[in-house]
Inverse folding.
C-alpha cells in the first residue's frame, strides 16, 4: 500500500514537472532558436525523467 501511494505521488510530481517543462519551453524561445525544437524538448524530457526517477528511487530505496 505504501509503495502504491509513493508511486502515485511520484507520478503526480512527474506530471507537474511535465507541465512546468512545457511552460518553460514557451518562455524559453531563445533555447529553441539556439538549439532547435527537438533538442530543446529532448533536453527538457531528460531533465524531467531524471528528477522523477531520482525522487522515486530515493523514496523507495530508503
Amino acid at each position: 500500500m505504501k509503495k502504491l501511494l509513493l508511486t502515485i505521488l511520484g507520478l503526480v510530481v512527474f506530471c507537474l514537472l511535465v507541465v512546468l517543462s512545457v511552460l518553460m519551453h514557451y518562455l524559453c524561445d531563445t533555447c529553441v532558436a539556439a538549439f532547435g525544437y527537438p533538442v530543446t524538448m529532448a533536453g527538457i524530457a531528460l531533465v524531467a525523467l531524471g528528477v522523477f526517477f531520482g525522487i522515486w528511487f530515493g523514496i523507495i530505496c530508503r
